Predict the structure.
Amino acid sequence: MALKQEEGWGCAMAVLNDSLKFEVKKHAFFAGFSDDELEEFFAVAQTVVFKARAEIFGQGDAGDSMYILLGGRVKISSFSSAGKETVLTFLGPGDILGEIALLDGGVRTAAAVVLEETRALRVTRGQFIPFIEAHPKIALKIIEVLCERLRRTDLFVEEVATMQSGPRLARALLRLAQSHGRERDGKVLIDLKLSQANLGAHAGLMRENVNRQMKIWEEAGIIETSSGRITILDLPMLELVIEGDE
């Protein structure tokens, strides 16, 4: 794991300004925290930095900590016994990762790899469990968040099992637009540098299928790509693709 703890930062409270509070509380995991509870929680966290392409943790690793992202991008993937990668999601500032192993003390259910240099707050299980015991109402919010993630996983499995390649890729792009999109002049830039291999692993498609479909959509004026980033030019048309009108 390519990780370093920043010198001179002290506790995480040094970076817990009003802007960061707002960003973190947008995440469902922290939505139930009061400002006092959030500050109490962050007071025991450590600030860490991961370099691009570093593995934060691997699938099956022992899990004793979770991370709150302050900046950067992280890919969350699971791997089959044959080594096939499925990209479950891409995370950015305000998102959290590693909470499942933190809560149950088990192994990591997925791998986390850094796409660009990322700063995060790390909280260990030994710090987190006493906090939850002191604030039991927050445990209910955590259950809600985990249930919502399970619902999204069920939808993803359904997409892979039932949807054709075009609608499946369109659904993946819209999902990324919702979580990482920036709208301007009726266009939506997916502010995430993606290889076609990563996009295919997120949509459950081979890279060759992604390449072919993206070329068709670019020629049709539905999307454009530049420097690894995708801009959706015609959102209504992409939504029609999902409905099966290719």
